[in-house]
Write a structure and sequence with these properties.
The chain has 149 residues and is mainly alpha-helical. The protein has one domain. α1 runs parallel beside α5. It is elongated.
Length: 149
């Protein structure tokens, strides 16, 4: 359990480097519609922040109430899945969904008493996908107004 907590803390620390919408310059781009990127980006960041806020709540929850907290993470994931994407934002959405799936599976493994190694594998994969989220956010911030898929 302690090793899983350390992995979760590392996951949260990596996730703190989210670019703000003002870091993306508004203008037309060559390959992707900039308005579609902004239409995705704003609700995506809201859901990303909800996920970051909920994750430590779930980690700190006693086992008796952890299922409810996991359910909240699943609800946030479903909302991310429901976002309308384009060629330039699909990688970002996919990376976050993969991160969420792994962290949810890690919490479910913890709740069901799976060995620490199983939990750690899920949380490590979740952290890896969060790094991809951060890289893709930075890529979008850098490429506008000429983003390529």
């Amino acid at each position: 359990m302690k090793r899983s907590t350390i992995i979760l803390i590392a996951f949260l620390l990596v996730s703190c480097s989210i670019p703000t919408p003002t870091q993306i310059a508004a203008s037309a781009e060559e390959f992707c519609d900039g308005n579609e990127i902004y239409d995705f980006y704003d609700p995506f960041l809201v859901l990303l922040q909800e996920y970051y806020d909920q994750t430590p709540v779930t980690a700190a929850a006693p086992k008796i109430s952890m299922a409810d907290q996991i359910g909240r993470l699943q609800e946030i994931r479903r909302n991310v899945e429901g976002l309308s994407t384009n060629q330039c934002t699909i990688k970002l959405q996919s990376a976050l969904i993969n991160a969420m799936n792994n962290s949810i599976n890690g919490f479910l493994a913890l709740l069901s008493g799976e060995p620490d190694s199983v939990q750690e594998t899920f949380f490590s994969e979740g952290t890896r996908f969060i790094r991809q989220v951060n890289l893709e956010l930075a890529r979008l911030a850098d490429c506008l107004p000429n983003c390529k898929p």
